[in-house]
Amino acid sequence: MVKSMSSPIAQPPTAGGMSSRMVAVDVYGYLAAAILRNEIPPASRVNINAVAVSLGVSATPVREALARLESDGLVTQLHLKGYRTTELLNQREIRELWQFRMLIEPYSAGNAATLATPAQLEALQHEIDSFASAPVGSDFDSYQDFSAHDARLHALILAASGNDVITRAFERTHCHLHAFRLAYTGSAGRATVDEHAAIVDHIVSRDTAGAGAAMMTHLAHSRDRLLPLAKQG
Ligand SMILES: [Zn+2]
How many other C-beta atoms are found inside a 10 Å radius of the C-beta of residue 113? Predict the structure, then answer.
């Protein structure tokens, strides 16, 4: 089962090892899930051979998965010593990441209000409607669904704003993965869902200034929801 980055969780592999065709994707998904659930704690060594043995695969797909996790910012390579999971974002890193988001996402939401095609407006409204009555729990699966919804909504707005350079810069931050590691034990809250609905209302009514302002408000609130969960830095 191939999972996108907005939903990086795979089921643990079945006993007896995995087919070679599925190995790379599943090892990645398995390790990503273990890191996001903090089953492999922050700043911990990842023993390549131990992972390979426990999954019934060779070291090669484990190394490939770790290289991909490094580009996600979930592990770093240690010189001649394998890999280590990264620390959770501290408060300074959250502030800096959200400052970047506050530069590009209100601007993009305003552009989306101006430029979105009817199909893009429909996709945005569908994303809001699909989550409007969904339960928002604090368990891992609920939070995974919520985080995936949040990632999809922000990606749809960026796509509708029509600037691929900005979209790629946003994707490279992997902000949803990092927020997920910090926040999944906390309640996601209906506040986020309401803030998203306000942004989309402004985009659908072609209100450029209102869409930008609503996105700025949402980002300020989401930053303030995360900061108390992070270490000082
Ligand atoms: Zn959001």
Answer: 26
Question: What CATH number is associated with residue 160?
Answer: 1.20.120.530
**DSSP structure string for 106-164:** HHHHHHHHHH--HHHHHHHHHHHHHHHT----SSHHHHHHHHHHHHHHHHHHHHHHT-H
Number of domains in the chain: 2
104 with 57, same domain?
A: no
| Cα(71) to centroid(ligand 1), Å | 22
Please indicate, yes or no, if residue 166 is contained in any of the structural domains: yes
12 in any annotated domain: no
Q: Domain with 71 in it: what CATH number? A: 1.10.10.10
Measure the CA–CA gap between 102 and 155, rounded to whole angstroms.
15
| Domain enclosing residue 44, as ranges | 20-85
| CB atoms inside a 10 Å sphere around CB 164 | 10
**Measured distance CA(211)–CA(222) in Å, rounded:** 16
Q: Report the separation in Å between the CA atom of 153 and the middle of ligand 1, taken as the mean of its atom positions.
A: 7
135 compared with 156, residue with greater pLDDT: 156
pTM across the whole model? 0.81
Give pLDDT, residue 190: 78
Spacing, Cα 197 to ligand 1 middle (Å): 10
Instruction: Name the burial class of residue 60, with classes exposed (0-12), middle (13-18) and buried (19+) by CB atoms within 10 angstroms of its CB.
Output: middle
* Closest among 127, 191, 194, 172 to 154, alpha carbons compared: 127
